[in-house]
Each structure stands twice: as C-alpha cells, then as structure tokens.
Design brief:
Blueprint: E1 3-5, E2 16-18, H1 23-27, H2 32-54, H3 56-63, H4 67-94, H5 100-117, H6 121-148, H7 154-183, H8 192-209, H9 230-266, H10 270-298, H11 300-317, H12 323-338, H13 341-351, H14 356-385, H15 387-394
Antiparallel strand pairs: 1-2
Amino acid sequence: MNKPVVVREEALVAPVVVPDVAAPAAAAGPAYVVLAGISLSHFLNDTMQSLIASVYPILKDSYALDFAQIGMITLAFQFTASLLQPVIGYVTDRKAQPFSLAIGMGFTFVGLLLLGVAQQYPVILVAAALVGLGSAVFHPESARIARLASGGRYGFAQSVFQLGGSFGTSMGPLLAALIVVPFGQPSIAWFSSIAFLAIVILWRIGHWYKPQIATKKAAAPPAHPDAPSSLRVKVALVVLVALLFSKQLYVSSLSSYYIFYLIDKFAVSTQTAQFYLFIFLAANAAGAFFGGPLGDRFGRKYVIWFSILGALPFTLALPYAGLFASAVLTIFIGFIISSATSSIIVFAQELMPHRLGMISGVFFGFAFGIGGLGAAVLGKVADHTGIAFVYQVCALLPAIGLLAVFLPKMPNAAR
C-alpha cells in the first residue's frame, strides 16, 4: 500500500504518495552516494555547456561574428533545451526512463566533437543545439532522482544537485582560459572525454533508479484542507516563473557578455576577463548550495525575499564601479541572486507534487529558454547602443522579484 509522506514547515498542496520501494530510502535519510553522483553529473554537464559561452571571443575573432550572431549561438543551444525539457518531463512523469540520462549525454558528446571541428557558422549552431539537446534530456529526470534520493530534505537535495551545475558553469571560463585560448578551437573536442565519464556515471545511477520506479500508478491523494486553491496555485506558478525570468536573464547577461563588457570598459585581456567571469560564476554556485538548506530551515518564501531585496542594490551599483569593485560586487550578486533558485524549484514542486518531471522541465527549460532569448535580444541591443548600456538596463531586473508578494502561504504539516 502506498503511504503519504508528510513534509515539515511547508506542506505540499496534497500529500505526496510514493511507492513502497522508496520508503526505506526515505526513512534512512538522504541517499548521499546517489546525490553525489547526480551532482557530479550535473557538474560535468554544465561544465561542458558553459564552454560554449566561454569561447565566444575566439569564435567572434575567428569568424568575424557580431554580437547578434553570438546571441544566436546561445539561442540555438538554449532553445533546444527549453523546447524539449517540459515534454521530456511530461513523458517521464507517465513512464520513467532510468537510462535516458546516459543516452541524452551522448548528444552532448557528439555536439562537443562537432564544435571542435566546425569551420562554418551553421555547423557551430548545430553543434550548440546538440549540446542543448543533451541538457534537455538530463535536467528533468535528474531533478526527479535528486528529490527521490533526498530522504525528505528536498531543499538540501536540490541544492546539492544545483551546486554541481553551478560549479560546473563556473569552470567553463577557467578551462577556456587555461586550455581553449592557448590551444584554439580544436581543443574543445578534448572535453568530449568529460561527456564519456558522465555517461558512465549516469548509467550506474540508472541501475539504482530502476528499482525505485513504481510499477502501479498511485491513486490521487486527498488535498490538504489548508492548501491553496487551484487559482492561487496557477498564480503562484506564474509568479515563480517571473522570478526565475528576472534571475536567469540577469545571469545570462553576465555569462554571455560580461567578458566583452570588461574588455570594452577596462581594456583587460580575454584571459583576465574569463577569470573575472569565473569569480562571478563561482559565487553563483556557492549561493545555489546554501539557499536550499536555508529554505528547508526557515521557509522558502524568506529565502526568495532575501534573494530579491539583497541583490538589487549591488546590481544597480555594478555599471558605475571600477574593475576591482566590479569583481567584489559580482561576488555578492552571484551569491545572493542564486540563493533562491533551489527554493523556487522546490516551491513549484510542492505546488504540483504529482507532476515533478513536468514542473522541473518547465522551470529548467524556461530558465534555459529565457536565457537564450535574452542573450539574443541583448546582443541586438549591444550592437546598437553599446555593451555598457545593456548592464544599466539589466541592473533593474531583480526588481521584478517583488512579485513574490503574491506567493501563497503554504500550510504547515505535522512533523
């Protein structure tokens, strides 16, 4: 018989029903080995995908690309991920595919090989799209595995999962500075060995995941009497999407164009600018890790509000700061603005606990998609107004997070 799981502090809209095979794991606490494996895989996946943005200066110089074309590369990569993630999440909600993660990583493997040998702009776009396709397969199901291995500590598990991705994203500029810049575009293909390692890890995780899959569809549990109404749930999901929009678009503006901003404003070298980008992305990774456990302990709404109100003063100051001050400001911005990512995703999962894959796919997919669309739009703006103006406009994005006032109060559950 299926048993409802009761979560402390922030209850779900309805009690989550999990199969009996998962009950022992929940009772024993988080499955740390599985969480470590899925986080390491996220690290490897996002390290590879972050290489695309990190080698933009090389591609720009080699193929005489303008900022709009650079933005289109980001769009090609992130559009495939955005378009497919909710679909993949919906499919795996209906029928889990334990080995799809390893198969999806194969697309990333091929994309990196192709990017290393590409000599024409359309081929670069295809290679970027293949890496995006690998991400589309990876994120929804891996987020589900992280929750399944959480032992009830959902924010903690999501933060461990996010830490791998954020830290991997921060490694892209560093590896590009140390390897790709000295050895050129063909060295990108060397990173396909990372994709192969990820395939091996994900295949092993698939063997752990397979017995956890329910063989019978669980009956729908009764709703909590104090749960938000259906209308409030829909409004809350729209608000959470808007919050993720403001955060991801700002992060995308820095990850895609911060290198060019530093080169244009302070006349630093490409390698120096990549190290500064690494500092921002490393702070982003730290914030993603600490935000989840804080949400488990103090409530996710408080963490979301801290992320909104805390980041805005620093983003407003960044366009007017010097080189050293810019580095310091981006540390605070990266840490604070990413601290709510895990809380936003877990909040959304708790609003619709019966659609974990689809919700994870929508939010991860939206994050990728808005980043790609935003990069393309910001590239057009930068071509016409200059890169400095872009950062003056983007400084206001965190203010969108004030919509968090419309998030519902989740009912407290018994311990």
